[in-house]
Amino acid sequence: MRDIQLSRPVLLALLGAVLVGGYLFYSKTQNSGEVIPPTPAPTSATGRSGSTGGTGATGPTAKKDSAEEILKKRRAALRKKAEEAGIPLRVYMARRQGKEVVIFFWEPDAKDDIRVKRALDELEKVRSKLVVFRDRISNKSDYDGIAEAAKITQTPGLVMVYRTKADSWQGYIDAGTLNERLTKLTGHAAKLPTRALDSGSGDLIYSNSGKTVPPSKSGGAN
Question: What is the pTM of this model?
Fold first, then answer.
C-alpha cells in the first residue's frame, strides 16, 4: 500500500474549511434567540425555598393559622357550654377548675354591701381556692343555671357554688360566719385570725369567738 501524502496547500484548505464551519455553527447558536431558563432552586416539603427563608402553603404560616383556628373553635365550644349551663363563661371556667365560687350581688355605695365585700376580701386571703365574682343584682338572670341565685332578691346577696353543690345568703354576714358556711359546703376548712377590725371604720369584721358588731341593718339567711 502506498502512503497518501497531501500537499501543503490542500492541508491549509481543509483547515480553513473546518474553521469556517465552526464559526458558522457558533454564529447560528448565538443568533437563534433561544434563552435557556435558569434551573430553579429545590423546594422542600415545608415550603422553604433556597436560603431566602420563604414559606409555602404547608410551611409554618399554615401551621399557625391552623392552631389559631383550633383555638377559636375551642373557645366557641366553651362559650356554648357556658350558655347551656346558664352561667357566664368566667364562672363556668372557675367551676370547671374546681374553684370555690362566690357570686356577690352588691351595690358599691351601700354600707352593708361594703362590709360584706371586706369580709370576702379577708376570706380570699386564707381560702386559696376561693374566687369571688361581683355583679349587680340587675344581672341576676345571667345566673339562671344556678337555682340558688333565684333566692336572691336584694343586696348584699351571696351565691356559693362548689362542684355540684350550692348555697345562698341574703343580707349582711361577717367573715367568720361566711367561712363556716363555705367550710360546710366544700369540706375544706380555713382558719381566720382571732379578731379583725376594719381599718377604715374600726368596726369588728369578724371574731372567731362569735362576738360581732351588728351591721346597720339585720341580715338574714336563705
Answer: 0.62
